[in-house]
Write a structure and sequence with these properties.
four-stranded antiparallel β-sheet; 21% helix; 3 domains; alpha+beta; Ribosomal Protein S8, Chain: A, domain 1
Length: 259
């Protein structure tokens, strides 16, 4: 502000308006700039979500439900952002995820959905030391990894279980398997081949049950265990001893890979 005398004894006051206007304009412009900056910070663009793709993969070799579910579990654990569902009726896996997720899933499927190794298991039953021997017999089973195989050798013997119903003649008969039964399944491979075996031996004993002339007594012996085999190397599983016969038999097994 400037004060001047106009010669008549009056003082005039002049304001530096241009300076004030310039200063206010500068402040308004600065405020607008800050407002734009703040607004820009608040409206930052969101990160784009990867495009989702749907795909169905049909399993070629994992035909067992347990094997298929194990593959699905691996995919879910490794690809947690993807949606993975097992369709048992089609033996297929439905997947939804990014292109990168599905590409990774195909790599896992190629590594996991492979043909199972097939093994030849040879069980040998021989007379144990110090016991009467009925000779040596070998039994061969072919089983794929993750599967089970069964072998039966013997006879089906009829057993009388009772009289016929009223108004009918004859007797009620039930047939039972008499002989040797071997159940086996295989897991793993290389030098850590897990073989689970169940060997059952049955025979008709000389004694009678006392219930009737047609009611025999069935003797039974069973051996069940799990061993880790080195392919090509025989391993003793244990022995079977039939009650009342005094006969004890030793059981061994050897595994060989089928080309």
């Amino acid at each position: 502000m400037r004060r001047n005398d106009d010669g008549n004894g009056h003082r005039r006051v002049r304001f530096a308006l241009p300076l004030v206007v310039l200063t206010m304009g500068t402040l308004l412009a600065a405020g607008a700039a800050r407002a734009q900056t703040d607004t820009g910070q608040a409206r930052q663009p969101e990160t784009n979500t990867p495009q989702q793709t749907y795909e169905t993969a049909y399993l070629s070799h994992a035909t067992d439900t347990r094997q298929a579910e194990e593959i699905v579990t691996v995919l879910r654990n490794m690809l947690q952002r993807a949606r993975i569902v097992f369709v048992a009726s089609e033996n297929a896996i439905a997947m939804r995820g990014s292109a990168e997720d599905l590409e990774t899933a195909h790599k896992f499927l190629a590594a996991l959905d492979r043909p199972s190794q097939t093994w030849k298991l040879t069980y040998t039953v021989t007379g144990a030391d110090g016991a009467p021997s009925a000779g040596s017999h070998s039994y061969v089973l072919t089983v794929a990894a993750g599967r089970m195989a069964e072998l039966k050798e013997g006879k089906r013997v009829p057993l009388v279980t009772g009289n016929a119903t009223a108004g009918a003649s004859g007797t009620q008969v039930q047939y039972v398997d008499i002989g040797l039964t071997i159940n086996a399944d295989v897991d793993g491979g290389g030098d850590a081949l897990h073989v689970r075996s169940k060997i059952e031996q049955t025979a008709i004993a000389d004694e009678k049950s006392g219930l009737g002339a047609q009611d025999p007594v069935v003797s039974e012996a069973m051996l069940e265990n799990t061993v880790i085999l080195v392919p090509g190397k025989p391993t003793v599983l244990g022995s079977l001893e039939m009650a009342g016969t005094g006969q004890r038999q030793q059981v061994s097994v050897v595994a060989e890979a089928v080309p």
